[in-house]
Every structure is written in structure tokens, then in C-alpha cells.
Amino acid sequence: MPHFRQRTTRAVLLSGLMLAGTAPAAAQTAADYQALRSKVDELQRQLDTVQRALTAKGPRETPPVMAVASPPATGTAAQQQQGPSDPLPRPAGAPSVLAQGGPSALPAGYGFRIGETSFRISGFIKGDLVFSRYGDGDTATNPLGRELSLPQSIPVGGRRSGILADASAKQSRIAFQTATPIGEKLLTTLIEADFQVAPAVLGGERALNPYTFGLRRAVAGYGGFAIGQDWSNFQYVAALPETADFVGVTDGTVLVRQMLLRYSHPVGNRWTISTSIENPETVSAMAGAPALTDNDDDSVPDLTGQLLWSAKGASLSLTGLFRSMRVDPANGRPAVTAQGYGVSLAGIAPLPTGKGDDIRFMITGGRGLGRYVGANVAADAIYDTVNDRLVPVPLLAGFAGVRHFWTGTLRSTWMGSFQQIWNPSLASPLSTRQVWDTAVNLFVSPLPRLDLGVELRVSHRELVNGASGMLERLHFMVKQGF
């Protein structure tokens, strides 16, 4: 074969030189032909020299044009919230490597590569069938609370509703990730979207059920820094239990995605510290009024910090938040401000059953935390129109969940969550005072990345004036990850 390539190369070179000769072929003399032949031989010797040099260096590694991506894990609420599992190795519960940049070594089979950049597309298709019955009233048409566990949407003071059925695939999700080695680190990006919290077209359930594609996360990271829209550093997403519901323990968990700049740094093998500045937004209520208002008057970013410990499937996160809230009154008075703060402790504790069972928990407390906890059940602060001041609202919230594996593919989680709000005296009697929720589910994964689940839930809401409402829900779901 090498001799064949040499003969072919020689013939091509000879033909080219003959075609490019300065004299017509008919006028070539034997001397002219011999001169051309000498030139071809010299070029062939040079090619042979180059070929021997390349062979001495050994075979050249060619980057794969495409490789099959490692499938993302599916099932837990934390994975549902974060989207695809981080493909980079990291301690259990550690911050997302792809969201903050990491080591320049990607695991084998990570996506496909174009040039120096590796790409990965992942996500899941999720279908939900939800049966709800409200004990004290009915809801408006197509409210978000008919598909998600949102305690503030539970009606109070009415008559018992009938059984209400809702079905959709709007929680289906897609994520697009990239990783590019720069120096000894990776420049990473993540864009993630679904159809869950975007508005549906009016009358959409009559025929086509269209929903708007909505941004969840868009974040870039390098060398421990991350910038973009991501889960708040005040929230420990990994502690969320596995649920059929979008969140499952909404009443008692920190739950915020927003624009931020975060820096994370490992301390030893088990500790990680991180800090962030995040988008500020004060959500207030007027004295005597239950409605919550977005003010968009803030001028100082929210500040957070986290200390995370993780080892052998266990993790413990301690986070803190400080914020400066501001409202510009519509009556022309000067802006009023107040400070808010909070502390949250969350973690995962494996159980000594040898089956992968664990306990997940979170407890959060502070003042002026309303929009950070429970999808904004409580106001951050009440605006006192008489004394022209902002009064932060204190709250305490938490959840716990216990997961048990019956077999390798069959498991259950029991969970309970609560939120207690201490509204000031100038708050409306129709403001929420407390909410609680409990649920139990059963999941099975008959095929890789395929989850089938059923969940039974009971939720309760109570107002300042003592009125209350209940929700009973049966939720079926199927989810196929890719």
C-alpha cells in the first residue's frame, strides 16, 4: 500500500509539472523530460522524509466528532428543578460545576465536540394528570395552583368543590450546555427552559394547548465565578425531595431563580464556601390590604453567603441573606427603606439501611424574606402609610422528607412542610398566617431514565382572621429523560 501511494503521488506530480511546463509537450526533448523526472524524484524524496518523521512520532489522536452523552439522572425534585444532572465529578451536594466553571477534564462520553468546545443537549418529557378537590371554595380558570402545590392559591371561606382534573406536558424541559477548556479550567454555559410558569394562550385548552417557552436558567461560569440567571445562592436545591409535584415542599422551602454573580471556592476536600450578589426586588403590601405589589424600586443588590459540607452522600448547608428593601410611595413622599435578613440550614442525611434511603430537610427563618420562601406566600414588608415606614414581616419555614427504596427501582418519599408568618398588626386580616402540607408518593423506574409516579397530597392554609381552606390532590406523572 505505501508503494502504491508513492507511485500515485509521483504520477500526479509528474502530470502536474508536465501540464505546467513552459514548452508544449510536442517540443519537449529527452533532456527536458529527464529534467522534469529529476524534479519529481526530488519532491518524492522530500515527501518520504516528512512521512518518516510523522511515523516516528506515532499515530495522531483525532478528537471524536461525536460521542454519546451520558444520560442525566431523573426523578428527584432537585433534578427536576436543576434540569440535567451535572456531568462533571463533584462532591455530593456541591454547587453546580457547569454553572461556575470547573476542572478542564470532562468525563468520557460527554456530549459531542466541535473544535475545542463540547456540547450537550439534555432534559425530559413530563406528563402530569392532577385531580384536585378544595374544601373551602373553587379556583379561577387555569390558575397555576391547579397544577402546582402553591399554598397561597388555596381558596378559603367557600363551599367544598367537586373533583377537578388537569392534564398537561408543560413541565417538559430542555437544557443546552457547553464546556470549553481555557487554560487549566473550563468556560461553561447552561441555557435551560420549559413551559411551566409562562402564560398559556387564552382558551388554549379548547384545542391545541399551546404554552409559551420560558427561560429557567442562563448562566456562564469560569474559575469558580458564575454570572447569569440561576438558583439563588441562599437556596440549597440538592435538599429537595423526590416528588411528582413541581416542587412538592413549596410551603417550607427557599425557592428563587434570579440574576446573580456568584463565587464559589473549595476549602479542603469537604468544605465549599460561596458568596453572591443577586437581583433585588421588594414585594410589599399596603397596610390593611392583602394584595402583594412588586415595587422595582431597589438600589442595593441582595447579598448571600453559603458554607457547605459534604461527604459520602451526606451534606449540610448553612446559608445567610441580607437585603435592603425600598419602596417609593406614589404620594410623592421620600422613599422608605428597611433591612431584611435570613438564615437557612439544609441537608441530606443517608440512613443506615444500605438501600440508598435518606432524610432531606430545610429550616429557614428571618425578617423580610417573603419572596424567597414558599413562592412568596408572605410579603417582604408592610408599608405603613400613616407613619411612612416599611415594617419587615418575620417568618419561619421548613420541610423534611424521608425516602425509602422498596427495591432497586421502586421507592417512596414521605414529606411535610410548613410556614408560619407573624404579620404585624397593620397587615390585612385576609393575609395568610400559616400554611402546611404533607404528601406521600410511589415511584418506579422500569426502564433507564423512565419514571412513573403517583402522589397523594393534603394542604392547608389559614388567614389572619382565622378563615382556612384545604386541598386534597392525587397526582399521576410519567417522565422520560434524555
Automatic annotation (TrEMBL):
Key words of the record: Coiled coil, Lipoprotein, Signal
Coiled coil (UniProt feature): 26-53
Cytoplasm as UniProt keyword: no
Low complexity composition-biased segments: 69-85
Stretch list, region Disordered: 54-100
Signal peptide extent: 1-25
Organism superkingdom: Bacteria
Pfam families in UniProt: DcaP (PF19577)
Organism: Novosphingobium fluoreni
Lineage: Bacteria, Pseudomonadati, Pseudomonadota, Alphaproteobacteria, Sphingomonadales
Protein name from the UniProt record: Outer membrane murein-binding lipoprotein Lpp
